[in-house]
Model the fold of this input.
Amino acid sequence: MKSLRIILLLVAVAAFTTINAKTPKKRLADRIGVCTSVGNAAIIKAAGGNHVEENLMNFVMPDKSDAEFEKNRRAAAQSVLPIASTNCFFPGEIRLTGPDFDIEKAAAYTEIALRRAAQVGIKTTVLGSGWARSYPEGFSHEEAERQFVVLMKRLGAIAEKYGVVIAIEPLRKEECNFINTVQEGYEIAKKVKSPNVKVNADIYHMMQEGEGPQSIINAGRKYIANIHIAENTRTPPGTNGDDFTPYFRALKKIKYKGNISIECGWSNFEEQLAPSIKEIQRQLAIVYGK
Done:
């Protein structure tokens, strides 16, 4: 009997291994979504997209009651695609740096935001919020950084409680005067030392700042949590033929496991979306193979 049990166990292990070996891991080319309203989920799915990245202020509505949020919670439950992430975290009146820095107000807002995000399965929320994050002329950059690190330690604890990652998004200088490169975002995240505070690498902002893909490699898979993409003119991928493959090679090198979300200006969303997704997939195939 003992020998029979051993044989059966070995057969079961072999079968499990065979099944897993035949189950393909989802490719990065299959993890492309769009920064837009969940109301567009069916359009995204039809175009070959994988997820929605919603606007946190509009969808999670931390300044509204739970009863008012309920409508959006139901919309998420009924969506044909998951809301994997959000952007547009803080409104400008909640100051994240500067003389009007308000950590208590930011923490209270975040508590509501991430509790609701967790309720609908959102795993990552991108923190760009350029106006809220910028500090006024004459204010010390060093003090702004100190404030922001203290803030992110506090917010990181909230994020850990709800199982959500906050991804700091570096923004071009025209939109924010604090944290303009992925390298700077990575250095901040290292100081915060929270498993739930990472970095969003926006390829558009990287190109605008002249930042090459090495910063993605420097940060590595431990810190890169989300990717935004658009051409250097903020047009949909495929419009002007921008080459993203150097950045994709960096993602391959770090064995990136997150999503790519298209964040751009559309002249005709329904017509441009499918070609845009296909162009990203085409360039990913150059780097990763089919």
Observations:
- Residues 235 and 265 are 6 Å apart (CA to CA).
- Confidence is low (pLDDT under 50) at residues 1-24.
